[in-house]
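Let's practice the habit of predicting before peeking. Look at the sequence and jot down your guess about where helices and strands might fall. Then scroll down.
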Amino acid sequence: MKAFTVAAVVVGVLAAGIASAQQPPVQQPPAKPAATAPQVPAKPAAAPAAAPAPEAKFPEGAKFAYINIQRIAGESAEGKASSGRLEALRTKKANELNDKNKQLEAQQAKQKSSVMSDDARAQVQRDIDKLTVDIQRMTQDAQQELQDMQNELQLEFQRKVAPIIQAVATEKSVQMLFSQGDSGLVWADAGLDLTAEVIRRFDAVTAAAKPPAAAPIKK
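Done guessing? Here is the structure:
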């Protein structure tokens, strides 16, 4: 298997793992007080989750296998870290827009005051207009910044995971490796799924690449 083939498989690898962070912060109207929900009997406690089934063995001599790209993005340490960075940026931008919206709401409330001179009312309207433009611009900038970070992280993720996929496929001596979500796969032997192995290898490489924690300074 050639390296460029593996790289093609992982295009868009972060799409599912970080889909929630793609959505830009948007203006939201003030929330209405929630109605009191009717009281309902509590559900009985759920039974303990069953232990995970043992991992299926890779069939000896198999020449085809597959991986689940979404699982690699969602469960690997690198994918989770990328999702966390995007979510942190999304939250930051949302908070900035919320603060701006509160300023706009305050000006709109002031505008409704009947005790105000014409000059003061005109100034409030100018402030409202400026805040409205600022919010629109901030929303557009936030969208672009989130998209830029997503593209950057996606390329970086692809660069890091491609050699892992290549190594696992080579060790298994498979001739073709499919992406489960993109191949139209309906059924396959569970042992042909190399996703868990890729995640384990990927996490091991990620952990090894982290710099050691600094030793505490003795006083």
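How did you do? The beta strands are 64-67, 176-179.
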